Amino acid sequence: MNGAYAAAAAADPFDRAASFLTFLISSLSSPDALQLPHERVEEAAEDGARELARLLLQAHLDLRAQAEEVALNSLDTLARAALAGGRTRLEKGHRRQLATVVGTVTVARCALRCPGEANAYPADRVLNLPHGRHSLGLRKLAVLEACRGSYDTTLEAIDRRCGTRVLGKRQAEELVKAAAVDIDAFYASRSPEPAGRRTLLVLSFDGKGIVMRPGHLREATQKAAERAKRTCRTRLSAGEKSGRKRMATLAVVHDADPSVRRPHDIIAPPGGRTGNRTVRKGPKARAKWLTASVEHDPDHVIKTAFDQAEARDPQHQRCWVVLVDGATHQLDLVRAEADRRGVALHIVLDIVHVIEKLWTAARCFHTASDPEAETWVGAKAARILAGDAPGVVAGIRSEADRQRLTDDQRAAADKACRYLTNNADHVHYDKALKAGWPIASGIVEGAARHLIADRLDITGSRWSVAGAEAVLTLRTVISNGDFARYWIFHTARERERLYPHPDQHDYGLSA
């Protein structure tokens, strides 16, 4: 197939593409092709379409090269010097390879030269060519595929799209890192849509570990791993940690309208619901915005989330609700950031974490298969939702005393009681439900699973800080629905970095 159009006339750059199209039509309409099964014809048509697209792109670049020669030949010495920073010597026939989504093409362009200076290529700016050999279209494809799956599956997907190997694994990793450099600037340049004063402003935070390569752990984790003494050489014993993970911090900011509920809207009463009363739904999140980082400490992520929240409510007129999981360090950072900005917060402990603690405590009084455990948890949870967490704590401890449980037998119950006592200021669910606030942080929990577990936690993954940060932040951009806008912003910023001289804006390559 390739040799049939090699001798096509070169006077018109598109002759070769036209010749190949004629050949492709002839090949698919030949008697031999009419005997082939459909999958063979389908494959030939796909390969041919890709090669035709490559030839059309090559022809377009060749046509622009011809136009550039004409344009530069028509300029006098002063005009060339003004165009290329004093370079006046014109040299034709410079070529570079460009790997694209339809295959590799050759870009021919002219150089403007002078002694002691690097060559200037006016066409590079007009074409917005990157410094490397991979086109922006191929880079975009690599980023989207790498954010979706492993780098091995990324290369497989690119090979299927491009028809040949145009990218290596290390190159794909570097392209992803380079693509993430403008995310902070992108969000700093955007203004969130305004919302009414009655609209709740909700923030929630979470953390999740990512398995890192040696040398990429935080200093404290590295030292703890070095100090740890394992019981077994080949596996971890109960309570032991591998010391290979670096914590990533995630934050979600969203708007929501208040939605008043009752405790039994959250958890079914013993015996189930009667169906006589409609269950009220909780506040529905909208305008969700995610941010995450494994490179920066939690205080940086929390500050970034507060920046986003304050951009939505600069006058602090809305009701700010913060959903937490009870981590003391996280709470301290949230309070410190709120105090620094003068923001009044309503902090709510995630009810899902509370119910999980109750289920663990229930095993102190009921076996794993005892259906009464569910009734026990439901009754305690309903009482907490009604605002009587201290009564629940007292009841659990009294029950453990009555049954004369040993310290080991009641350990989970005591842990649940301490959890509720330590967070006593954040479990006033009766007030939260009456005010219509959300009381569960499912959005940030889901974000942790989606952003990290679905990609960075796949089997066998070991990350550098830079590589994990790039994939994680790009996945947040995609989850926010901002990737298309971000890519336009990123390519514009990349152009400014590569071609910063304003005097080249007036140069055109039209014949």
Keywords:
two-stranded antiparallel sheet, 511 residues, 2 domains, 20 helices, alpha/beta
Helix content: 40-55%
The tally of structural domains comes to 2
Number of strands: 7
**What is the global morphology?**
elongated
Number of separate helices: 20
Spatial arrangement of strands, main beta sheet: 5-4-3-6-7
Describe this protein's structure.
There is one protein chain. The relative contact order is 0.11. Helix 13 runs antiparallel to helix 16. The longest helix is centred in the N-terminal third of the chain and has 36 residues. The protein folds into two domains: 141 residues, no CATH class; 246 residues, no CATH class. By secondary structure, the protein is of the alpha/beta class. It starts with 14 loop residues before the first helix and ends in a 13-residue tail after the last helix. The protein is built from 20 helices and seven strands. The N terminus and C terminus are likely disordered.
How would you sum up this structure in a few lines?
The protein is built from 20 helices and seven strands.
